[in-house]
Amino acid sequence: MEAKKASQSITIMTELVLPNDTNVFGNLMGGRLMYWMDIAAALSAQKHCNAPVVTASVDNISFENPIKLGNVVHIEAKVTRAFTSSMEIHMKVWGEDLTQQYKYKSNEAYYTFVALDPNRKPRVVPQLVTETEEEKKLFDGALRRRQLRLILGGKMKPDDAAELKALFVKD
Ligand SMILES: CC(C)(COP(=O)(O)OP(=O)(O)OC[C@H]1O[C@@H](n2cnc3c(N)ncnc32)[C@H](O)[C@@H]1OP(=O)(O)O)[C@@H](O)C(=O)NCCC(=O)NCCS
Asked: What is the Å distance from ligand 1's center to 37 Cα?
């Protein structure tokens, strides 16, 4: 299976915040944003593996700035690393006020997707080739983030998280 470049998975989504997307303060609801992010990340993962995918986990999301009614939402998603059947996707989210010509960061997040075969079992995905410094940095950190989320998801024992332990325990 041929490896693919991170840049091949870039997915850019643009949405307009309409009244039905907002809370009582006139800001975009977090749940609606996470729904759009889920779709953007799934498309990015599918561009990488060219197979159906499911969301395996969503890391913590901190909403730095509310996105206002009538503003535009920009989501940029890219695969940071491919493991065996899973892929980590990094997303950056901005809001934009087109009338005031002002763009502001809303949040960043990591989602993990797993590619499935026709029997709905995890299937192998292509490895990822990094090109830019930022891609390399995200690729290197992905192993630690994966161990942390697998521990939190009850899929890995803390004692087996070699990468994480190396950060805290000296030989
Ligand atoms: C995600 C899912 C396919 C994993 O299946 P599984 O039978 O647990 O398979 P495995 O334990 O062999 O794990 C397969 C891959 O998923 C990854 N994975 C499993 N649970 C994970 C979690 N909580 N977070 C991140 N990755 C996870 C594993 O690390 C493994 O990755 P790798 O192949 O790259 O090493 C399965 O749990 C599932 O279908 N979940 C529901 C998905 C869904 O419906 N999503 C929408 C939410 S409503």
From this structure: 19
SS3 63: coil
Residue 51 CA to residue 38 CA, distance in Å, equals 16
- For 54-83, the pLDDT digits (tens) are 999 999 898 899 999 999 999 999 999 999
Rounded Cα gap, residues 9 and 140, in angstroms = 18
pTM: 0.95
* Residue extents of the structural domains in the chain: 4-130
With b meaning 16 or more CB within 10 Å and e meaning fewer, what string describes 108-130?
A: ebbbbbbbbeeeeeebebbebeb
SS3 45: helix
State whether the beta carbon of 85 lies less than 6 angstroms from ligand 1: yes
Ligand 1 atom closest to Cα of residue 124 = 33
Q: Residue 118 and residue 30: Cα distance in Å, rounded?
A: 33
Topology annotation, domain 4-130: Thiol Ester Dehydrase; Chain A (3.10.129)
Tens of pLDDT, residue by residue over 21-52, are: 999 999 999 999 999 999 999 999 999 999 99
